[in-house]
Specification:
Blueprint (H helix, E strand, L loop, with lengths): L1 E4 L3 H18 L4 E4 L6 H12 L9 E4 L1 E3 L10 H8 L11 E2 L8 H14 L5 E4 L21 E4 L2 H7 L12 E4 L2 H5 L3 E6 L5 H9 L17 E5 L9
Parallel strand pairs: 1-10, 2-3, 2-6, 3-5, 6-9, 9-10
Antiparallel strand pairs: 4-8, 7-8
Helix pairs in contact: 1-2
């Protein structure tokens, strides 16, 4: 596990974006695993800026997103499909036909999960997976528990995750209680992983991820066994590791 330290959120975002930009430049048909939430927003902003400057070309890129809320349509302003269009897809030359996000209103959730796994496999897996980390150590929506699920699945969100995400909704009651999420197997099978973490509320999770025991109680700790995982942190997120 490689640690890249940044002084603040903006520097963290730029350093993570540099890793992703290098991937796109060196392999123009890369499969990128993408994340949502406030952590990667700055990273996407840098990628858009470099695209606008003519330094990046997304035309050959395929993407697979980590997760989507159950019950939200793709045009709901809190869906992750909407987030990706707002923060990246609408601003670069990626072919939307090559972007993949679980369908939050799938009539057959089990089939949706199976089909998503099959899609990732058909693409040859993920070349670079971007991750954030939850305050409880979750990655994607793989929540802490006695065991973790290998493939894409529907998961019940922990109360701490609902609390963390309620700021995006009108009220806590509006936060979905379930989500589709890529499983631990597909995440760990990505050829490269870049995880971004910012803020003191992530400091305990970062410490456990990097220095704690490998345990399903902290799903991110499994990244310790990945052969090419880069963690980009700002000073606040790293504050308990000094």
């Amino acid at each position: 596990m490689k640690i890249i330290k940044a002084s603040n959120y903006d520097e963290m975002s730029k350093k993570a974006a540099q890793v992703i930009a290098a991937q796109i430049t060196l392999k123009g048909d890369s499969v990128l695993g993408l994340a949502t939430g406030s952590s990667p927003e700055g990273t996407y902003k840098y990628l858009i800026d470099w695209y606008n400057q003519g330094d990046l070309d997304f035309s050959g890129i395929t993407s697979v997103n980590l997760d989507e809320y159950v019950g939200l349509t793709a045009d709901h302003d809190q869906s992750y499909a909407y987030f990706m269009r707002k923060h990246l897809f609408d601003h670069v030359n990626i072919d939307l036909a090559n972007t993949n996000i679980p369908c939050g209103i799938a009539e057959d959730p089990a089939a949706e999960c199976s089909n998503y796994d099959a899609k990732i496999k058909s693409l040859g897996g993920v070349d670079l997976q971007l991750l954030g980390i939850g305050p409880n150590g979750h990655i994607g929506f793989n929540e802490p528990g006695d065991e973790l699920v290998a493939g894409t699945h529907v998961t019940d969100l922990k109360e701490s995750t609902i609390d963390a995400n309620q700021r995006f909704f009108a009220s806590r009651d509006d936060v979905p209680r379930q989500a589709f999420t890529m499983g631990i197997r597909d995440i760990l099978q990505a050829k490269r992983i870049v995880l971004v973490a910012s803020g003191k509320n992530k400091a305990d999770a970062v410490k456990k991820m990097v220095f704690g025991p490998i345990t399903t109680a902290v799903p991110a700790s499994l990244l310790q066994v990945h052969p090419d995982c880069t963690v980009v942190v700002d000073a606040d997120a790293w504050s308990l590791c000094e």
